[in-house]
Amino acid sequence: MTKTDRNRGGSDHGDSAAVAIQGGAMRSMYCLGALGELIKNDRLGPKPVFATSSAGCVPVVVALCSGFSHERLASLTTRLKKEVANTRFINKRRFWRVVDVKFLVERLIAMLEENETTWRSLEFKWVIVATKRNGQALRFKLDNTVTLDSLAQILAATMAIPILYPGGVNADGQRYYDGGVADPLPLVAALRHADGRRVVGIANVRLSSLGKPSSKSEARIIRIFPGIPSKIRSALLARNPLGDVSADIMRGSSVGSNKITAVFPDEVVHLGSRLDVTYANLDRIMALGAADMKRSLTE
């Protein structure tokens, strides 16, 4: 399901966009498919803004390394799928490290290092959300001058799932947790830096679920799991106010001078499990994301 402003005049060709992207482990590949379609249709523009939490950073890394070229993005995406479509990254039998965040960050940093000349030549702003021990959001503001060492720390912090990393992850001298705990879809951050740009929100859940607390089965584990700070635990078990705000924004067509394009799946069940890293599933959910974005751009 998609929704965009049907009454905007003229063309967006060449205009830059401010794009907010949700995480969600491998459901971020749905978001990568959507972002790829935005690039294919020349709607990202030369000076984009990105705002991401958790694995929502994955599509941005691939886009930056591609130089915003759809052909290059397709090649890098194929490489990424081959690297993560195995039990090295996600292994349900590996209870204490079901998701190996360190492995994913290493693969992303390797891609950035190999394509450093490309992405450092781009003009972009990138806001990455991490969650502080008190449950509040901390927003790292990056551009093409960020060091790879700093970016590696920030990526690890924003993907630090509390059950896997109850002590958090160090970045900038502080301990942080998964950015999705505080802000699952950083649409407000995208708007703050949009400066008149068209704003695109890419979610991989229904809008009504953006602020939804942990499921009953997850909540049972979260309540008893040792080491998680009380504020983080409470945030995971409660409805997320920033998620609800983002959902309300995406239901509208504009905020002030910023036009809103919302992309999200009709049925989340079609995306499968967040832990399904089979190559066929990654291909399938990317195609769903691309189709939803394409529909939004032609409405």
Describe this structure in words.
The chain has 299 residues and is α/β, with parallel strands linked by helices. Helix content is 42%, strand content 15%. The protein contains 12 helices and 10 strands. The protein has helices at 28-40, 57-66, 70-84, 101-114, 116-120, 148-158, 179-182, 187-192, 216-224, 230-237, 241-251, 279-298; strands spanning 2-3, 17-21, 49-53, 125-131, 137-142, 169-171, 174-176, 198-202, 254-255, 258-263. The strands form 2 sheets. Strands 1, 2, 3, 4, 5, 8, 9 and 10 form an 8-stranded mixed β-sheet that branches. The chain has a two-stranded antiparallel sheet with strand order 6-7. A hairpin with a 5-residue loop joins strand 4 and strand 5. Helix 1 (28-40) packs across helix 12, helix 2 (57-66) packs across helix 3 and helix 2 (57-66) runs parallel beside helix 4 (101-114). The protein is globular, with a radius of gyration of 18 Å. 48% of the residues are buried. Residues 2-14 have low confidence and may be disordered.
Task: Describe how the helices and strands are arranged.
Layout: E1 2-3, E2 17-21, H1 28-40, E3 49-53, H2 57-66, H3 70-84, H4 101-114, H5 116-120, E4 125-131, E5 137-142, H6 148-158, E6 169-171, E7 174-176, H7 179-182, H8 187-192, E8 198-202, H9 216-224, H10 230-237, H11 241-251, E9 254-255, E10 258-263, H12 279-298
Parallel strand pairs: 2-3, 2-8, 3-4, 8-10
Antiparallel strand pairs: 1-10, 4-5, 6-7, 9-10
